[in-house]
Amino acid sequence: MKGGAKYISSNLFMVNEQKYFASTDGSYIDQDIHRIWPTFTLTKTDSASGKFETRNALSAPMGMGFEYLKPKDEEKIKGGPVTMYKKRYDMLEDVREAAVHVNEKLKAKPIAPGKYDLVLDPSHLFLTIHESVGHPTELDRVLGYEANYAGTSFLTLDKWESKKFNFGSKEVNIIGDKLEPGSLGAVGYDDEGVKCGKWDIIKDGILVNYQTIRDQAHILGLKESQGCCYADSWDSIQFQRMPNVSLAPGNTALSAADMVKNVEKGIYMFGRNSYSIDQQRYNFQFSAQLAYEIKEGKIVGMLKDAAYQANTQEFWNSCVQRCDKNDYRLGGTFSDGKGQPGQVSAVSHGSATTRFNGVNVINTGRKLG
Questions:
Q1: Are 328 and 122 in contact, with CB atoms under 8 Å apart?
Q2: Distance between CA 157 and CA 350 in Å, rounded?
Q3: What's the pLDDT tens digit per position in 322-361?
Q4: How far apart are CA 211 and CA 199, in angstroms?
Q5: pTM higher than 0.70, yes or no?
Q6: Which residues are CB-contacts of 190 (< 8 A; sequence separation ≥ 6)?
Q7: Which tens digits make up the pLDDT trace of 102-120?
Q8: Which of 63, 78, 109, 248 is exposed most, by the fewest CB atoms within 10 A?
Q9: Closest CA to 318 of 287, 359, 362, 275
């Protein structure tokens, strides 16, 4: 392979879920749901040192079929260090770029720990949204009904009842959505026969809602469920599962390239990598597939061993800027686990490229040189 990669492994996950629901309330619902996730891992070894680096695909699992693998040039976002894709994906182009990136990673300098402004691409930010916003706003975790599998939540009811709990800055508008076209969580009706919709979870930085099913809605004074009930099989018990949970894009015209121009000392991150978060979804650490140093408004090279640490409230209050809807993209997970016995569901998280100021960054390597 051009670029000298030694190994590549690839997978194509596809699901066609055909579901018929009938209830004593008079519902008769037939749904046909498709999901796809093409992915790969590319590895290069340095023969002199024996060190190796990898780069995973920057694809997003989507609520689509094979049409996802038919890329359209107008849906590609170019101009930065990485080509990104909106609603279609060019796997071959991503592989070619990955071969270049692993060479850069082998030569990249280690990060110097300290405070940085972070520019987070949606291919990375989706996982931070999933873990620090999606899970703690599940009402069953808030109430303690779910605890053994990945913990409870710091977003207790008293914070919601105050109507003024400062979850994040005014730039933070988080939406629960079961209808977004192309998303993994898009369905017409949930597994209690409830018609699905869209609602605010965080509004201008304030916690205003959670995620509910029928037997929880009354706790929040809602007239009806938000349609968040799901079972992964006919023989599994349906229970509360996460909808698409997304960060709304900014209202002012802004590209990622323009955002970078205003950063004096920062890091630009792409792709999901290792992470950890505590049992109340509060203290966390995230790293990325690719990290680039920003100096005085310019991308000056790749970095390695970079991860950021924060608590959820501190991190989302450091959010200062969002790119506009032209940069908005979906990420997501094909197999989000929950419950005992365990079940999996698929869920998307959308955002545009977003800036967070003054975030603590650490070096995860064994040494700085």
A1: yes
A2: 26
A3: 999 999 999 999 999 999 899 999 999 999 999 999 999 9
A4: 9
A5: yes
A6: 178, 196, 213, 225, 227, 228, 229, 230, 238
A7: 999 999 999 999 999 999 9
A8: 78
A9: 359
